[in-house]
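1st attempt posting a full record on here, be nice pls
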Amino acid sequence: MPVWLQAGFWGFIAGAALLIGAAIGYFIKVPMRLIAGVMAFGSGILISALSFDLMDEAYRSGGLDAAAIGFVSGAVLFTGVNYLLSLKGAKHRKRSGEQQPKESESGGSGLSMAVGALIDGIPESIVIGLSMLKGGNVSMVAVIAIFLSNLPEGLSSAAGMKKAGRSKAYVFGVWGSIAIISGLSSLAGFTLFENLSPNIVAASMALAAGAILAMIVDTMIPEAFENTHNFAGLITVFGFIVAFFLTKLD
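the predicted structure (as tokens):
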């Protein structure tokens, strides 16, 4: 299988976890406390992966300047777009409770949440493609970490969408589309950056890491803390250590 096709395949596999999580959240009544705990675990996994896999690789490839500039730029870019989407009703897109607005309460919020879910997933997927630039082998740490973190994201968000009265077609249309776009984003991460300089690749990887960290704090941790409170930190630590072990096995 060509390397570019492998990149798309692994991106789709990681993105498909969103669809699996959405199915669980939509059809099975999962306790909100459990959803919040799984979200905390997923947050820890992503924080560990971007720390020890993404930023470390960005630093080794492009140096401190490329890593730092890319990281901050990614956070600024995500925060700006997320702020605009929040004004349109997408602020609570990963919440499993009653926080998500109904379309009748906030016109256009359905589209905003779909776009918000998309910008949450694209940086993670691009990282998978970027990881294949050296030698054509995918970083299984990145794939596993993103897959494990996507499950609670899809689960929590779909549960909240259902409570907000979103149709089944809307919920699965959103997450199915994002799974496909995740594959395409991963493919783009490989093909578009294949012949670029190490500094640009490093800055791009750091940019994705910055966007992911901003996304975790803005959209995942609030849901994690909502129902786990004093245990959110502990569960996040467990997720962090699992991903840390994975980096040492890669």
